[in-house]
Amino acid sequence: MAAPKKGRRAPASQGHPGRTLILIVIVMAALVGGMFYSGTKAPRLGIDLAGGTSFTLAAQNQPGKPNAINETNMNTAAGIMERRVNGLGVSEAEVQTQGESHIIVNIPKGTDAKQARQQVGTTAQLGFRPVLTTTAGTKTPEPKPSPSAGGKQGTGGKGSSPTPSASATTQGRAVTDALKKPSTSPSASASDKPATPPAPPVPGGTDIPAALQKQFAALDCSTKASRAKAGEAAAGAKPSDPVVACKDDGSQKYVLGPVGVEGTDVKDAKAVFDSQQGQGWIVQMDFTSEGGKKFADITGKLAAKTQPQNQFAIVLDGAVVSDPRVSERLNGGSATISGGFTQQTAEDLGNMLSYGALPLSFKIDDETTVTAALGGEQLQAGLIAGAIGLALVVVYLVAYYRGLALVALASLAVSGVLTYTIMTLLGPAIGFALNLPAVCGAIVAIGITADSFIVYFERIRDEIREGRSLRPAVERGWPRARRTILVSDFVSFLAAAVLFVVTVGKVQGFAFTLGLTTLLDVVVVFLFTKPLMTILAQRKFFASGHSWSGLDPKRLGAKPPLRRRRTAPTLTKEA
Fold it and tell me: What is the widest separation between alpha-carbon atoms in the chain?
């Protein structure tokens, strides 16, 4: 007798179905444990189900730009607002234009409305301008005389400047004092320049036009209203024009030269905690190649000047957030804004700088709270419809497949647990929010999952009709069913992916849920349904073809078992 060939598994080989079932049980336990450990026991709901806040923003005309409010700029502004809000982890924010000059922003419940208002309402026009002169934000006092003409270099004293030092310390970085109140104590740095009193409003009066000198003398930054007015004027000026501006906290006022580096030259900005130099939260900016060259040029020019002309102002929406001094040319294409930031304010500024400035300025016309009453009624109706559909599927499975319906229902339960836990965990992880279209996608997935079971069951029945017993039928029917299931799920996933890419808003929720449940269908069929069917094929109830097993050979019209016919020997008669 020839020995059986090795290296090829027989069609009826069972493998290790028990190990596979244990694996998926461990995965389910880990997901459920992670859900409870995170403290989130339910999926995060979208604005249509949980309510939220709605903003109506009106575009404002800008000086010198009479035709700025147009369809292109409005669509660009809506896209930037959506990216900013989504940068906060709010993936279900709705941003859409309305009419010719309005944008509607809907933020789901659970999001900080104040933070979202700042993200959508701030224009974020960034510019680096050289400082021509600066003094206190109110009426300028007479400058105190310098202690001596030569001015000995020291560590600070009576003549020290009250402005905190923010000199550049490393190549390619400008460490600033943004959002930091001026210190009243003298500087203690041994490398500081000679102490210099505050500069008068117009030093010499030769570098600043007379009209700008008059504006600077009249500028008062002591009130919020006056700072807002000055900010609007500075933000509306051309980049090539000098301007007067206020420090964002009102402590200083400035005459600033033309923009040396624009915000569009910033490639990326992010919040970083600086533990090495003890500066706390900072905003680190990376410039484009062209922006890095501009930044190196402007710092090289400023380093050769004296204070305050060796300072450059970082201007955001017409307000100075920082005015660091420069002591050397800075190469490397990066800079940092530091001082006085909390984690939240640093992340907000980095988020706005990363996604760019709005092409228009906006005013919030209306802010309302959206209730979830209508969405709750629709959700209830949708869940009722889903329950009715699921009940009909169960009735069909029990009536047609009988005992096999237990396998299908167990698989549906596993798919439901995986879907629920993953959706719950994706809420805090990526900001996923469950809205009504997403619920519809989950309901549609019930049919997709049940279809996979039916394909496999029918392949098994086909094998039994051919006269094979259950155990070989389970193994021989799997390869053909597997190919059909993979092709079907691939088409569904491809449709979901295309829908997700080409659509916006709530429709993306439907596409995302459909794609997720399609992937989970493959996981459940391969790691649960097939191993469970292999184990049940060894049980007498199914293996014997019980009439309620759904695999009764007589009910299926099975052929007689396949057997080889033996050829009788031929007898020849001798002559």
Answer: 148
